[in-house]
UniProtKB/TrEMBL annotation:
This is Biopolymer transport protein ExbD. Keywords: Cell membrane, Membrane, Protein transport, Transmembrane, Transmembrane helix, Transport. It is a single-pass membrane protein; Single-pass type II membrane protein. GO terms for biological process: protein transport. InterPro entries: ExbD. Belongs to the ExbD/TolR family. Gene3D superfamilies: 3.30.420.270. It is found in: Cell membrane. It comes from the Bacteria. One of its GO terms (molecular function) is transmembrane transporter activity.
Length: 124
């Protein structure tokens, strides 16, 4: 009975830590682009978030990544969750599309087609 209780406690700790990291990803302060409308959908469980900072650098889970590392992470995400896995891009509104396009291309090459952008919708 004791080993089973130990496993349950380890699972609880694992889920607490992983849920904290998932929430932390969307708390990186960015001035999101403004949109006229948006679609509110619950985030899928297989969501992979990439933040594009004002300088054009990419961050995944709070860590700056370069193109080869991003390629490996996207391929790993595809291998783990399949081609329908979601990629969310959070970018500062001052970032030019030319700095976001390689990210979209990398997701496409990795076999991930389900990409979305986080935006800020002004209240009218």
């Amino acid at each position: 009975m004791t080993p089973m209780i130990d496993v349950v406690f380890l699972l609880i700790i694992f889920f607490l830590v992983s849920s904290h990291l998932a929430r932390q990803e969307s708390r990186i302060p960015l001035d999101l682009p403004v949109a006229d409308g948006s679609v509110d959908q619950p985030p899928p469980s297989d969501l992979f978030t990439v933040n594009v900072l004002p300088g054009g650098t990419w961050q995944v889970s709070g860590t700056e990544v370069d193109r080869p590392m991003l390629d490996r992470l996207l391929q790993s995400h595809h291998a783990e969750h399949g081609p329908d896995a979601a990629v969310r891009i959070r970018t500062d509104r001052s970032v030019a599309y030319g700095q976001v396009e390689p990210l979209l291309r990398a997701a496409s090459v990795a076999g991930l087609w389900n990409a979305s952008f986080s935006v800020y919708q002004e209240n009218r």
